[in-house]
């Protein structure tokens, strides 16, 4: 039996930043950018792969849910251009080559690919990136070097209100000389023909040695330092450094499904742990007696409080701090618990503290199935059974999978 090796379809062209033009609809950055591992695969195959990987993780961890529902994908119209935030990095594709602006190259963290034709963002993101890179090249600005810690340009951050069509832009530089020409950059941005409207332009100064977007100081160059968004019938102001969900349409479906698993919250005391900017907290507060939201990021907690007031909700409370430490200091007991931890999952001490309340239902929303199954195994040791699991594909083309899980206390089975 003979096997014929499948030939890779050659690109029509390639430019100095690593972009290619393909005939089959693939992203022109797919050779170098590590963001979309499923480029070119039929969407149904992507879903099958993600569901299979998730089921395998559960099996290896010895977790057998009473009901493992099929993965829910995104509708066809929202499988591309769904990201509402991007943090781009200034760099170069090859050492000493032309300056680039975009994403880190796959398996080569010191190399940056200019992603000015990315398919996961709205066209406005690509237009703003393209303009900013041309602006900085024309003026001879130098990228920040992660080894020598010299140079001016570090990042460009773009955020978007999907339901409000608002854009918030942020250039991140060091304080080295020559300084960044803020007035000229803003003037050029405001003259761009965009589908959405720019409501804020910021300049963040970052001299930290860490390769991350950090803020030593920030100036508002135009408009305001936040954008507005609507989600699940609620209004939110999202400040530059506050966390907010990346795919709005998908997370609305996920949250609605997750909260539908709770038997009843009317008149009950609810804990929403790792609450971010408090979206779930506020949805629950519309029917619960009281909702406590706990989040460790100060900017997110401040935003949650502002948004609760904006939505006229007085029965939700937000506390900033580590979940375990905050709960150790609280005397009230919850009737229902919702957890939505970051990718690292929950600490063992937090799991033990939460399980110790013995509530009938815990809803776990996860953005990382690997740490999810670790936590679920711990909960099973502490008297809980996994009643229901459903994966969600909120990030088509990428490797990421979200999961909604309902845990039930064995005493209430």
Computed CA radius of gyration, to the nearest angstrom? 23 Å
Structural class by SSE content: alpha/beta
What is the element string, with H for helices and E for strands? Answer: EEHEEEEHEEHEEEEHEHEHEHEHEHEE
Number of strands: 19
CATH topology of the largest domain: Rossmann fold
Keywords: Methyltransferase, S-adenosyl-L-methionine, Transferase
Protein name: 23S rRNA m(5)U-1939 methyltransferase
Family: Belongs to the class I-like SAM-binding methyltransferase superfamily. RNA M5U methyltransferase family.
Binding site for S-adenosyl-L-methionine: 245, 274, 295, 340
Describe this structure in words.
- The protein starts with 12 loop residues before the first strand and ends with a strand.
- It has 413 residues and is of the alpha/beta class.
- The longest helix is centred in the first third of the chain and has 18 residues, at 43-60.
- It has an 8-stranded mixed β-sheet with strand order 3-18-19-17-16-13-14-15, with helices on both faces.
- Helix content is 25%, strand content 28%.
- A hairpin with a 5-residue loop joins strand 1 (13-14) and strand 2 (20-21).
- 42% of the residues are buried.
- Helix 7 packs parallel to helix 8.
- It has 9 helices and 19 strands.
- The chain has 2 domains: 51-75 and 245-412, Vaccinia Virus protein VP39 (Rossmann fold); 85-231, OB fold (Dihydrolipoamide Acetyltransferase, E2P) (Beta Barrel).
- Belongs to the class I-like SAM-binding methyltransferase superfamily. RNA M5U methyltransferase family.
- S-adenosyl-L-methionine binds at residues 245, 274, 295, 340.
- Pfam families: tRNA_U5-meth_tr.
């Amino acid at each position: 039996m003979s096997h014929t090796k499948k030939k890779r379809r050659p690109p029509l062209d390639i430019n100095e930043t690593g972009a290619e033009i393909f005939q089959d609809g693939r992203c022109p950055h797919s050779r170098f950018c590590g963001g979309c591992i499923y480029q070119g695969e039929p969407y149904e195959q992507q879903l099958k792969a993600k569901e299979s990987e998730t089921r395998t993780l559960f099996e290896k961890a010895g977790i057998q849910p009473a009901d493992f529902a099929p993965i829910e994908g995104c509708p066809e119209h929202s499988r591309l251009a769904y990201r509402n935030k991007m943090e781009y990095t200034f760099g170069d594709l090859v050492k000493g080559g032309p300056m680039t602006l975009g994403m880190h190259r796959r398996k080569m963290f010191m190399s940056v690919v200019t992603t000015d034709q990315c398919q996961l963002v709205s066209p406005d993101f690509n237009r703003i990136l393209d303009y900013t890179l041309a602006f900085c090249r024309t003026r001879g600005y130098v990228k920040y070097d992660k080894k020598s810690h010299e140079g001016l340009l570090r990042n460009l951050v773009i955020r978007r209100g999907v339901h409000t069509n608002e854009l918030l832009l942020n250039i991140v530089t060091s304080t080295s000389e020559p300084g960044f020409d803020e007035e000229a950059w803003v003037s050029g941005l405001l003259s761009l023909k965009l589908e959405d409207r720019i409501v804020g332009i910021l300049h963040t100064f970052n001299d930290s040695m860490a390769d991350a977007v950090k803020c030593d100081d920030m100036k508002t160059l135009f408009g305001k330092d936040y954008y507005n968004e609507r989600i699940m019938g609620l209004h939110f102001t999202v400040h530059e450094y506050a966390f907010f969900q990346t795919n709005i349409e998908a997370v609305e479906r996920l949250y609605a499904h997750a909260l539908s698993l709770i038997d009843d919250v009317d008149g009950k005391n609810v804990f929403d742990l790792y609450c971010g900017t408090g979206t779930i907290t506020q949805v629950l507060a519309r029917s619960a007696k009281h909702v406590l939201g706990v989040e460790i990021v100060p900017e997110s907690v401040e935003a949650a409080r502002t948004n609760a007031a904006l939505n006229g909700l007085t029965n939700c409370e937000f506390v900033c701090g580590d979940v375990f430490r905050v709960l150790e200091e609280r005397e009230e007991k919850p009737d229902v618990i919702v957890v939505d931890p970051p990718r690292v999952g929950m600490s063992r001490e937090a799991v033990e503290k939460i399980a110790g309340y013995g509530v009938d239902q815990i809803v776990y929303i996860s953005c990382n199935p690997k740490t999810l199954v670790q936590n679920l195994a711990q909960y099973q040791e502490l008297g809980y059974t996994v009643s229901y699991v459903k994966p969600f594909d909120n990030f088509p083309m990428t490797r990421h999978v979200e999961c909604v899980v309902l845990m039930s206390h064995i005493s209430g089975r």
